């Protein structure tokens, strides 16, 4: 598929009004996306677990209008929200070529998250993918009874999901990995044949039962605004002295992870996942300007996890996003013991002892 395949050609605008609703999950990267080229093309491939409980629910009501500019209102958790507008405006501008009907309608976008707003959990992946899916459902309605190309009418939801992921990527890179589950790969690489820089694809390789219902408990170390926005963060990879090596390491790690997912080797899984998290932060610490996004409590938690692993036979491990919060990953069989460990030894390092229990999920749903 190329960008051209995602341009909507035949549609009608005799649909006056309607509404569509989707819920879309967040995702947590195992091999990290950090660094991008123009048009939201990643510098390296990434793979993530789709989450289950951390979701955004979005309803879009569309009404036909005569004027020829973008027109939309956003309501976040019931309240009109102006702060999100510029991001959506940019998103609409980027995707208009693929969705030429955007200026024919006024959109009322009502959105809410299942996780607390001020939790420091990035909502751009779930938020942008939910909007992209709603827009795809609107596109479907406008396309009804109009003969479109063979790719668009393939009979299954491949085209729908690919274009939803393609659009979500133009909103926020990691959002393209939130359409499907349980593991999604984004970015061309040799080990995953169908992989693309343009959209995320469901990982179709063998996955050992050790990874079934894998658990992710998110420890909220810092609920504040992100110190460095991801846009600024990705830019730090331009001219970064270690960028080339890092991008090639991500390819190697993805290939290794593919083998590990099939064999179920949890010790090797831990090594790749933790090394990826620390490498992401190492990239930020060695860029110009440089940042330390971990907090003292992030390190306390990491050390506790390592000590717990030494003491027990646990396969619990951590990963991090571009912030201080810690995602604690562990097999379903360890749920009881690890939750006890979190409660006894890690919760104190979280703001207000707050953490969120999640697990691997199956992707977005239309409501
Ligand atoms: C550290 O997807 O938030 O979470 O494309 O600029 O919106 P933009 O960036 P974003 O970057 C997320 C980076 C990460 C790692 C990852 O999820 O792979």
Describe the model.
The protein has 367 residues and is α+β, with helices and mostly antiparallel strands. It has two domains: 204 residues, Ribosomal Protein S5, domain 2 (2-Layer Sandwich); 148 residues, GHMP kinase, C-terminal domain (Alpha-Beta Plaits). The protein is 33% helix and 23% strand. It is built from eight helices and 14 strands. Strands 1, 4, 5, 6, 7, 8, 9 and 14 form an eight-stranded mixed sheet that branches. Helix 2 crosses helix 3. The radius of gyration is 21 Å and the shape is globular. The two termini are 28 Å apart. The mean pLDDT is 94.
H/I helix tally? 8
Uncertain residue ranges: none
Average of pLDDT: 94
CATH architecture of the largest domain: 2-Layer Sandwich
Fraction of residues in helix: 25-40%
Indicate the radius of gyration in whole angstroms: 21 Å
CATH topology of the largest domain: Ribosomal Protein S5, domain 2
Number of folding domains?
2
Structural class label: alpha+beta
Count the E strands.
Answer: 14
Which tags fit this structure?
single chain, 367 residues, alpha+beta, Ribosomal Protein S5, domain 2, Alpha-Beta Plaits, eight-stranded mixed β-sheet, four-stranded antiparallel β-sheet, 8 helices, 23% strand, binds ligand DP6
Question: What is this structure, in a nutshell?
Answer:
The protein has helices spanning 85-95, 124-143, 158-171, 230-235, 243-263, 266-285, 296-311, 335-346, and strands at residues 17-31, 36-37, 41-42, 46-64, 71-76, 79-80, 105-113, 183-186, 200-202, 215-219, 317-320, 326-330, 355-359, 365-366. With 367 residues, it is of the alpha+beta class.
């Amino acid at each position: 598929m190329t960008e051209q395949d995602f341009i909507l050609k035949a549609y009608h605008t005799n649909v006056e009004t309607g509404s569509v609703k989707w819920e879309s999950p967040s995702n947590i990267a195992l091999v990290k996306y950090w660094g991008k080229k123009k048009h939201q093309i990643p510098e390296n491939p990434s793979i993530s677990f789709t989450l289950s409980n951390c979701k955004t629910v979005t309803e879009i009501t569309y009404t036909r209008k005569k004027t020829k500019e973008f027109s939309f209102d956003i309501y976040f958790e019931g309240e009109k929200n102006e702060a999100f507008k510029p991001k959506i405006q940019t998103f609409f501008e980027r995707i208009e070529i693929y969705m030429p009907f955007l200026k024919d309608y006024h959109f009322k976008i009502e959105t809410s998250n299942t996780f607390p707003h001020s939790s420091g959990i990035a909502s751009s992946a779930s938020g942008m993918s939910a909007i992209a899916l709603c827009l795809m459902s609107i596109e479907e309605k406008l396309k009804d009874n109009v003969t479109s190309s063979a790719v668009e009418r393939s009979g299954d939801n491949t085209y729908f999901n690919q274009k939803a992921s393609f659009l979500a990527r133009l909103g926020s890179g990691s959002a393209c990995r939130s359409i499907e589950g349980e593991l999604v790969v984004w970015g061309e690489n040799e080990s995953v044949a169908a992989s693309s820089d343009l959209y995320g694809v469901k990982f179709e390789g063998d996955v050992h039962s050790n990874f079934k219902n894998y658990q992710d408990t998110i420890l909220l170390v810092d609920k504040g605004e992100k110190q460095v926005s991801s846009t600024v963060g990705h830019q730090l990879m331009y001219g970064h002295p270690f960028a080339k090596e890092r991008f090639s390491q991500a390819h190697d790690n993805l290939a290794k992870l593919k083998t590990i997912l099939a064999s179920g080797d949890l010790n090797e899984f831990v090594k790749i996942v933790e090394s990826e998290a620390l490498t992401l932060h190492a990239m930020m610490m060695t860029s110009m300007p440089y940042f330390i996004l971990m907090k003292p409590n992030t390190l306390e938690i990491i050390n506790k996890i390592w000590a717990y692993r030494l003491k027990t036979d646990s396969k619990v491990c951590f990963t991090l996003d571009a912030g201080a919060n810690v995602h604690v990953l562990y097999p379903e069989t360890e749920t009881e013991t690890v939750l006890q460990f979190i409660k006894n030894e890690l919760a104190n390092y979280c703001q207000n002892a707050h953490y969120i229990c999640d697990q691997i999920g199956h992707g977005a749903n239309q409501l």
